[in-house]
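#struct-help
A.M.: can someone run this one for me? Single chain, 195 residues.
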Amino acid sequence: MIENTVPKHIPIKLKMKKEKEKAIHDLNNEKWPHDFELEITNTGTKPIYFLKMLLLTGVRGLEGVERVFSVQYGTMKLGPVDFQARPEEVPLQPGETYVYRLPDILVESWERARQRENRPDAKRLVLVLQLLSFGDGTGFAGRNGVALPHAPDVKSSLNGCEPEPSLNDSTGHESQRHLRGIGVAHSTRTGTEIH
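D.P.: on it. Structure tokens below:
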């Protein structure tokens, strides 16, 4: 029932808690979100300060958007992958295991929406990496686990684009700046705010 698509080079081991395996793999278990307990082990040599994965359910809501749970360790209040950890941040040390449980509020929301929208239950769950940060300015991002920061000669899709044409603006400056703001906001939000 659970497919782990996190790339092999990412220094984490994921496994369902032994006593929950049977319940989570039972396709008739409508209470699977209550039984979801994922063991996340840091198999690397550096502490992990932030980890975010998505748990894809394959179930779409009335508006056609797939329902997804966020599986997370740590807080992202300090910024993106390049943040420098502060002393109050508690990392997942090498060799340490953290057990992630779906928060009650998300489980209750899932169940209410299933009843209200008469949705089918999830029959296949897929874990997808979004971001892992070591708190020292390095980490991995995306489904493929791209190492961050990028090498200096690698251009991102955001800074390698040609300027956008102006839209009914005699100077073009305001329209271009406005479009860039939309593009950046859109690209940094894609897939991260689906609940």
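A.M.: thanks! The chain has two domains: 2-152, 155-195.
D.P.: also worth noting: Helices lie at 21-25, 32-35, 104-117, 173-189.
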